[in-house]
Each structure stands twice: as structure tokens, then as C-alpha cells.
Amino acid sequence: MTSERLQRLRGPAEDAVLTLILLVAGIGGTDPASQDQLDWSRPPDGWAYLLVILAALPFVVRRRYPIAVLVASGSAVLTYFAAGYAFGPILFPIPAIAYTLGSMLPMRSAIRWIGSYYGLMFGIVVARMIGESRDELWRQIAVWLLVSLAAFGAPLAIGIAVRVRRESEAG
Questions:
Q1: Phi and psi (nearest 5°) for 42?
Q2: N or C of the chain: less Cβ packing under 10 Å?
Q3: Statement: residue 6 has pLDDT above 80
């Protein structure tokens, strides 16, 4: 195989490995992650695992269709939380897609897409917290705000920095 051919296969191979990691972590970690959250969330069932799979599978084409991956994976993650399942490895696709959009799209476009996704996620999680009327609700919302901003914002910023550096090195 020529060096050029290997280089062309590198991107799809990396996407396949990322997809496999997300699948294994999601399927293997969903039940253990939910065990400490059963007092306020639904136990995982077939639907939860289907959503975990649907959140991970789109990453196999993330370089070719990054916005479609955000929409497909993001929809699965949002549905998972709206259905009342526990926090866990279903969250792993979030930083992966934030980094991807930051590294592939113009900065303003990436921020708009990830910001919209963040707004939807934040709204669903806060509505769920309010509906469950847990103790210390405002503290929990503040913690979710900080943690979720880091999960969305840090990988997005890193992706943008990688893209800017790559463009400046190219000329």
C-alpha cells in the first residue's frame, strides 16, 4: 500500500475506533453507572441501550458529516435524558462531537451548533431536576451548569485551536 492510500484510510479508521470505544463504554458502563442513581432515574432497559448505540454509531462518519453526527447522536442523547435514564457513559459523545465540530467547522458555525445542542441539553436536564423536586435543587442546577459547560466548551475550544493551528501551518 502506498503512503497516500494509508493516509486516506487513517481518518475513517480513527472514526471507526472512536465509534467502537463509544459503543463498548456505553454498553458496558450504562448499567453500572445507573446503579447509584436508581432512586431518581429509570433503570436501563432495551430502549436505553438502543439509545446508547444510536448515540455512538454516527461517529463512524464524523469527518464526512459532522453536523449530521451531531443531530443523530445528539437526538439519541437528548431522548435518553428526556426518558429519565441515569447519567453515565451516554455523555461521552458530547465532548467528542464538540471537538469534532470545533476542529472542522468555522468557529462561529461550530459555536452556534454546539451552543444550540447545549441549550437543549441544559433545558431537558434542568426540567428533569425540577420535576424530580430533589433536595438542594439550585445547587444541583449550578453544579450541572458548570460541569456541562466544561464538557461542551473545553473540547469545542480545543477543536477550534487545532483547526486554527492546522490552517496557519498550511499557509
A1: -75, 145
A2: C
A3: no
